[in-house]
Each structure stands twice: as C-alpha cells, then as structure tokens.
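Notes on consecutive records. When two proteins share a document, each keeps its own sequence and its own token line. Never mix them. Below: protein one.
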Amino acid sequence: MLRLVYRLRSRVWLYPGPAGWHFVTLPKRQSAEIRSNFVIARRGWGSLPVIASIGKTTWNTSVFPDKKSGGYVLPIKADVRGKEGIASGQVIAFTIQVRP
C-alpha cells in the first residue's frame, strides 16, 4: 500500500563541509519504500519534494538520496533548528509527507 506520510526518528548530524548543513537520515526500510513508490516524482539529483514537520514547525523541502547510507537525507534549516531547539547529535522525531 502506498503511504504518503512517514513518522520517523533519527539523529541529527552536521555535514563536514564549510556550509554547516544539518541533516537527519531516513531509515533504510522507509527510504527503500519511498524510492520504489515515488520514482515518477523524483526531481534533480534524485530529490523528492516533501512537507516536513518537527514539533510545531512545518515547511516545504525535499529529501535527497545519500550514497553513503543508501537512504534519503532531510536537510534541517537553521530557522527550524532554532525554533525547535535542535542541536547536532540529538535524536528527533519528525514527519515527512511525500508530495507526488
């Protein structure tokens, strides 16, 4: 059955580059399900448009395939991290809704 909404938990990590981007990696099982169910919705770099929610904050963004983990990663903007008190290394609950 096709699911559009995923409720997940993952650890926030900092990309080791000068930009300081923070991400969470989606679990492999859900990443594989998303990859197989939403092939048609993929955009540049294999990204998929999603609506992400953490706490009371919701925003439009995309998830991106990650060669290292084999899953998708969700970038977490500084604005969202500030509003929700999120730091690198913290395990957070989040929701993504794939926008086909």
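Protein two starts on the next line and is unrelated to protein one.
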Amino acid sequence: MYQSYPGPGSAQEPEHTQPPNSVRNAVKLMYAGAAVEVLGVVVTLLTTSRLKSAILKAHPTYTASQLHNAEVAQATSLAVGAVIAIGLWLWMAWANGQGRNWARIVSAVLFGINTLDLLISFALVRAAANLIVGIVIWLIGLVAIILIFNKESAPYYGKQTSAE
C-alpha cells in the first residue's frame, strides 16, 4: 500500500499552541524587566554623585583617588551587570514565550541569583535609587516566576516539550 509524505496540516506536524494568559503576562513582565534594567543603567549614570556621597559616608578616610576608583568600580559593575541582565530578561522572555520547559527552570535559577544579589546589595554601599530599581526588578521577577509555574501555564510547557 502506498502512503504519501505528510504535508502541511498533517497530524505529524508539531502543534504550535498559543500560550495561556499566564505565560503571555509573564513574558510581558520579562520584557518589562528588561526595560527596568535599561532604566537602572540610566539611574546608575545619573546618580554617580550620590554614589560618591554614599561611598564617602561609608569610608570617610578614603583619599580622592580611592574614592574615585571605588565610584568607577561600582558604577561599572552595576552597568555591566545591568547589560547582562537585559540580555537574560530578553532571552527568558523569548524562550518562555516559546514554551521551552528548560526556560522555566533557568528563569527560576536566575530569580534565585537575583534574590541573592538584592540581599547582598543591602549590605553594600549603593545609592538609594539603585536599591529602589533593584527591588522593582525583583518584584517583576517574582510575579513572572509565579505566573510561569502556576497550574494554567503547566500544560503549555508540557505540550512544547513533547513537540521539541
């Protein structure tokens, strides 16, 4: 008996289901997280004088050179970290939007790292504006994690895993 090659619309073609609202909202939040990270870079650049004051308050014996080096080091690390975080937010938004199950796990790990970073930042010398941005980013991540791990989202990730 002759069987034709499966064409478009055949049962063997993987299903591309639309993500549920919970995943769509999580992806939107992840894009918002990237946008807030961009805002964080701007805030870092605009608040370097406040950063300088915070460093001087914590280390009053610093020389002008030490103060400048500490300020540049912190501002640079914050900016570089934010650029990396922007890329991670965008990557996770794309991957979760595609229903990649590994993306949920990676998102959770990155959220854990972000939580540790936020806790550490309370102990470090930072401008208040940077702390506020950090808290907002953490809250966005928390809601996104809750959304991608809820009952409404699970079947979407299960379907995508079987189609991969």
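For the record: The radius of gyration is 22 Å.
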